Structures are given as C-alpha cells and as structure tokens.
Amino acid sequence: MTNPCIICVAITGSLPTKANNPAVPITVSEQIESTHEAFEAGASIVHAHVRNDDETPSSDPEKFAALKEGLEKHCPGMIIQFSTGGRSGAGQARGAMLRLRPDMASLSVGSNNFPTRVYENPPDLVDWLAAEMLVYDVKPEIEAFDLSHILKAHQMWQAGHIAQVPYVQFVMGVKNAMPVDRDVFDYYISTVQRLFGPDAAWCAAGIGAQQATLNEWAVAAGGHARTGLEDNVRLDRDRLAPSNAALVQRVVELCDKHERPVATWRQARNTLGLRAGPGKEQAA
Ligand SMILES: [Zn+2]
Description:
Elements: E1 7-10, H1 28-41, E2 45-48, E3 50-51, E4 57-58, H2 61-74, E5 79-82, E6 104-107, E7 112-113, E8 118-119, H3 123-135, E9 139-144, H4 147-158, E10 167-172, H5 182-196, E11 202-206, H6 211-221, E12 224-227, H7 244-257, H8 265-272
Parallel strand pairs: 1-2, 1-12, 2-5, 5-6, 6-9, 9-10, 10-11, 11-12
Antiparallel strand pairs: 3-4, 7-8
Helix pairs in contact: 1-2, 1-7, 4-5, 6-7
GO molecular function: 3-keto-5-aminohexanoate cleavage activity; metal ion binding
Keywords: Metal-binding, Transferase, Zinc
Pfam family, one: BKACE
C-alpha cells in the first residue's frame, strides 16, 4: 500500500478573522507566505479564498490573479485551487476568477444549511460554474456536504458536464449540515467506489475540533486529507494553531503513523490527472 496521501491546505476561507487567530492570512502577501510554509511542510494543494482589507469575503478576480502569480513564483508545482463557494448569494461573481485557469476550483453541486444561513447553489448556477470549468480547463473538486451531492456529481460526469472522473471531498461537521458520522463516512467511500471505480481518489475535511478526526479517518482509509485554518483555527482545546503549516504537519504525522507517504506535487498532479501547468515540468 503505497498510495501517497495528498494534503490540501485551506489557508483562509471566508469566515475566520485575525480576532479568531492572528495566523489567519488575509492579505495576498500573507496568503503567499502562509502557503509557502505549508507547501514546505508537505501540502501539495492550496485551497484559497480572497479577502478585502477589512477581512470581509471578496471574489475580486484581480486579487485572485495576484495570489496565483505569487503562488506560482514561490510554490512552483503546487496545485492551485480557488473557491467558488465562499460568497453564497453572489451568483456568477463566484466564478469570475475561473478564466485565470487555476488548476482546480471547488464546486458545490447542491444546496444545504450552514450554521446561520442557507448555502445556496441553485441548479442554473451549478451548471454555469461547471461549464466555465470545462471552458477554462479547471478541474472541479466536488464539495459533498450531503450524499446527494456525490450522486449529482455522477450525473454531471455521465452527461459530460464534468470532464474527468469527479474528485469528491466529503465535508463533515458543518453545523446544520452533515455531522461527523462514521457510518455515513464509510457509505460515502463505498458510493464513490461504486460510481467512479474502486481506485477513484477522494478526500475529506472536518470542521473545528473534528478536523483531526476526519484527517485520521481519511489517511487510514486510503483517502486524501484537507486541513488548514479555513476549517479549524486550533491545535487543541487550549492552543491556537500557530500557522497553516502546523496543521499540515499534524497530517504528515498521521501519514507516518498509518504508513502512507505524503504525496509530492508531482504525484498529486498525476493522481488527479492535472496538466503540468505553465512553465512547469511534466507531472510524473
Ligand atoms: Zn473554502
């Protein structure tokens, strides 16, 4: 069993602020520095939102462009994944950065409840985002907040609206959405394997204190793992996470414990069927 584990670092998100944890990177230069540390620690995917200077969520393509340029310079080879989910209600503005051709973008294919609101993903917007990803050769990561989202991704793939075998992320522990439940987690895995093939790659993310739980479940079950300050700002009950890299390091230790190598960016690109990227070596 030498299936290398791909570690994704979700550096910023749309919610956590400096008041929650001063290590949350807000400006583009902070984001580049934080990602670089996480890349050195073992992350091969960066999942990114951008923020305004007052820390409110943004979908400004110019900010995304500056971030992409800096990441390509300072983290060569790392897989860049932009969030299209961070500004529920913003409509097509959520996908305005796709024309920058990031390697990947998150794609939510259905609606569900979030802690204090509805996370709106109406069918016409889902179809438009998926179509834009086809146009610009951006690989979607399907954010499965519910079982139905995995089956919807399968339908979209069968219809040709998603180019490659969908890469699904199981998200558990968002208040008012799917809780952390081991039986559901196992059923998610068996559903992905039934619909997309026994070797289909998948990943998992847990929110708050459950981040470490989902990290360990995913690493032990042969999946890939997402960590980072977007989902969780603490190391444990008493300590704030000092950086995104510290959370990545926690997953690296889980990989050691479960005898999984940590995927290099080349291995991660190969596993996910991604293009090598502008000016980069061929993925191998
Ligand atoms: Zn996100």
